[in-house]
Amino acid sequence: MSNAGLILYFRTIPWKLLFLFFGLFFIGEARATNYYFSSSKGNDSRTAIQAQNPATPWQSLKKLNSFFNNLKPGDSVLLKRGDTFYGSITVSTSGAASLPIVISAYGRGGKPVISGFTTLSSWTDLGNGIYKSNCPECGVTDNMLTINDKPQMIGRYPNRSYLTFESHVSNTSITDNELKNSPNWAGAEVVIRKDRWIIDRNKIKNHSGNTISYTSASAYSAIDGYGYFIQNDPKTLDTLGEWYFEPKNKNVLVYFGSYNPALYIVKTSSIDTLVYLRYCNYITFDGLSFQGANVSAFELIAAGHIALQNCSIDFSGKNAIYGAWSQSSPFFSLTHSIINHTNNNAITLSGDFPNALIKYNTIKNTGLIAGMGENGGNSYEGIDIEGANSIIENNEIDSSGYNALKFTGDSIKIKNNLIKGFTLTKDDGGGIYTWNGSKNATPHHGMQIEGNIILNGIGAGEGTNNQNYLPSEGIYLDDNSSNLKVFANTIANCSHSGIYLHNSHEIQVLNNTTFNNGTQVNISHDNILPTSPTRNVALQHNVFFSSDASSNLLKLSTIANDINLFGIADSNYYARPLDDNYTISTSQSSLLPVEMHNLSKWQSSYQKDIHSKKSPKAIVPYFLKKLIGLNMVNNGSFTNNINGSSSWNSSGSCIASWDGSGKINGGALKVSYTKQTNGSTGVVVPVGKISSGKDYILKYSVTGIKPKGEISAFLRQSNSPYANLSAIKYDSITTKRSDYTVLFSSSATENNASIIFQVNDSYGTFWLDNIELNEASVTITNPKDSIRFEYNATTKDKSIILSETYLGIDSTTYSGKLILKPYSSIILLKNTPLKTSPIQSLNFEGKKKGTTVSLQWETSNAFNTSSFDILKSSDGVQFKKIGQVAANSIALTSSIYTFNDNTFSDGKSYYQIRVVSKDEKNTYSKTIVLPSSENVKLSVTPNPASNKIWVYSNFFQDYRNAVLTLHDIKGSVIKVIPITSSYKSIPIDISNLAKGTYIITLVDGNTICNQKFIKQ
């Protein structure tokens, strides 16, 4: 009805009836009442009528609790801004759907504070820097103490790190061989890191010798080799701010050292819970501050339609908001609020909290003090929520001890949150984490993780048996998770994985960007849920990017040889511009070795990612200034033997032997097999001492019997525990010779180090040669000089000024100004020419086949190279260009080039390679000489001979990359002599040969000529 129609309607009603209509219409408004409270100006003896006037407020929360049952739907309780109210609020009645009971603020100033803090004073000096203050208001426990509004760590020994125990008995005791009997820790607490995600605090029953016996309410047992520390004992107090609570006399002991405690404001929590919400509905808290809860600021049990808005919750001894799981508490709402400094979980809504809304909040500094959170796995977390149809959106969650956001339930939407700094106290967790238990658990549906920015998953190795392993994941979909859409998220700088699908299925991973994580996306099926295979995973339109030259972009592992059944993958970008080769790792079972793939091999082997691409631009990984010192490998050319080097595989089927057939350059190390196996072979080449922080250049040659295979190389300890000392670098093996140059940076100093080459046994026989390791002076490329990562974690467009030209991952060019949409990101590669060093090596050689000369050369850094000109001369002085080969200027590993000269004639021909630089600073290769076989002269003197022969050839002075081989009449190779410098003649000792006819052969890859001689 229009306004005019409504007025006309009212004019037709008699005035008495009209008055009655308006009285009934506004009766709800008339019933709503405001009640005022002021701790500074209030008086609890005033009447309820007086308390409705801000000039005559009530004073205390005790009065509010006694009156709460008299509140009606729509009533408001208003606390004076700037005042602090000590105590707790017990909500004992409900509002209504459109008329909630509101607890808010009035007046001017800061938010009214509901406080559980008691300020400590009247300090008694106990000596040794320890002072005591009595707290009669405190309960039986004390979980939070602040000095000048900064939370302090409860006293512990040792102060920061963990001790290590060698053995344990069930869940009752641990034994540390280094622990002394004094001081005796009976009565204190032992905090034990029982697993990556478990830190339990346990009461010490007995301390005898090096064994601590304890009582634990936790179901988790200890793991040998993990860590522990002692806390909650006055004997631990030795660092400023450390404290201890004595429950019997309710004394608080604080270590101040030589400082005067009167100079500090010291507060301790003495109220367990600040707001009790039990069996009530439609309550709103608006514009209030809650500080110093000893246990929880808010406790919810069967409380529906509870709303917190514009509030702050600080210094909670355990949880800021705790919802019990016994009964449903629907439609909980937390908006535009701040939660800071929580010892356990900022928000726990455990059980049935459907339709929750958590939006526009900031949650900071949760669970950062080991030993102060709850026992078990669901602790030290930012948000832990179980609730169908819930929305967690536009929040910032900063600095969480374990999972930043853990969730479970149907149709949950987690959207546009900024999550940074997590798994700081425990790990094997993530920025966003979910889990659905065993195989038979009821699957969830309709869950969505969209548009979140997730940064800096750190990991917490301290107190475990492997401190260098830091399992922190950006988005972690754990056991039996299913029916999730992971869409348009940005995940960066997480120590283990950007996205981790662990025993998960029916997952869509679409349009995400992962940047500089340990592995960009990790999909794993293991024996935790062996009968729940990974299936129906869609991996499409994502950007997987790393500026580290060694990290995996995609890692897949399974116990069932079924990677091809995991799902679909296509139209992704696998970008690792410092080394875009071998970026994908697969492991088909525990019986098979890890296999590395470049994108093309992955596409052909599994028929996935057919339309996916690599980085649009390569980046030079390093520039070599010079090699330092001698080759650290004593026998890397394997001229006569393989002494010092060895091979090993688990089945004992590999054989390392010397091969003098000239497979690469004269002698070589050959690895062959007595039977077909599925493991991997390691070739161990000792190098002696390497030093932490120094750089080393490895050069080696390799060939094999199959056209496709992979070889890895790395530095490792030669003795137990055989720890890796460098990153692992992968290259390919083919039936042709490949020469590689690899940079290693040593992670530790080791007096007895080795180079390890690894090849899968299934590849078969391979050869290694020309192994050199030198300390090197290099300039390592800083990826930040060429790669720019930008994100926008706000609700508004972000303007980014670009002073140079950049390429996007899809090759789009950007310059000037770039507009980044809310909760999105972009990775840019600088598109200006890089200053690059010249080619680091140019191995140039040639072979004559009939009337054709086949030229081959190899480069290990052609980034600044445009092409190669092939030059030829008949006299070695005047050269003429006879051809050109384009350079592979984006290759990050060695590249091999070939050119055939079909104009060879009798006589000598001289060849050079001119390296045409992009900056027009050309360089030249060495000159090689190829004579015709008819002009090569080879003679042996004396002939016959008894002890020594001299081999003469006009060839020796022109060619530097050949070998002489000594054969018996059956063709068996007896000796190989490399020609490494200019000779007129070469002596050969034949004193140990049996009498008979032998052959000297001049070899440069093909036979040039032979000469027989007789041993007398």
Automatic annotation (TrEMBL):
Residue ranges constituting the Secretion system C-terminal sorting domain according to the UniProt record: 942-1014
SUPFAM superfamilies for this protein: Galactose-binding domain-like, Pectin lyase-like
Right handed beta helix domain mapped to chain residues: 378-526
Pfam families, alphabetized: Beta_helix, Por_Secre_tail
SMART domains according to UniProt: PbH1
NCBIfam families: para_beta_helix, Por_Secre_tail
Protein name per the record: T9SS type A sorting domain-containing protein
